[in-house]
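Chapter review: from sequence to fold.
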Amino acid sequence: MESSVSARLLVPGIESETGGLGLPDDVPVARAVDTDGDVLLLVGAAHPAARAAARARDDELCAVMEITDVAPVAVPHRVRGRAWVAGWLTPVAAADRPAAARLLAEHAMGGPVPDDGRLLLRLEVGEAHVDDLWGEDAVEPDAFAAATADPLARHEAELLQHLAAAHGDQVRGLCTLLDAFPAPHEAPGDASCAAVALGRVTPLALDRFGIRVRFGDGDGIACYDARFDFAEPVRDMGGLRRAMHGLFEAATTAR
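The token string follows.
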């Protein structure tokens, strides 16, 4: 929820249209998760969910939020994962609007303005499902509510872009940490790290636990992802610098 992903809010049985700017009107203006694990959404007056919520009674309106996570760096096969959060949609009660607006403002560039014809909605989570680079799994509502944002999520895009632009050789050298590295077009085996010398290497994902790197051939067709874990989870940017330096030094030693 915290990272740079795109999201669509869909109400089964209601088709969305395309707005005047060529953007689908099922895209929320802003979104955030409150302390109860409900998803708060700011939508335009023309949003299908806004129209449906105005006619719905209590919690009878079912909705699904589709989330797509795209790598913030240029890399083949850029979609890193998808998630679906389904539940019941209701307008945010008047008494709760100020707190909801403040929370949304903290998560939106420039801060949303909820009193300009937009509508604040609450999605009570009934079930969630994730399919990403780390695997596929269902997420229970209690686990969804208890989850916390990764401390690097807000900065991941700029960090990956910096690593790709300024530390490409060091990122490439991480392949020395793999016991068995697959050359392009081959299954994991005993191929040498030198197989990536002429290929493309891109830092693909970064979180408090480690970094994922995509090694590919020169044509960008065949690729292989490798995960490099930090010695311990990082809590801030200082910890990340120490963790990355530790990985780079270990890669140099392993050559």
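Two observations follow directly from the output. The mean pLDDT is 82. The first helix runs from residue 48 to 55.
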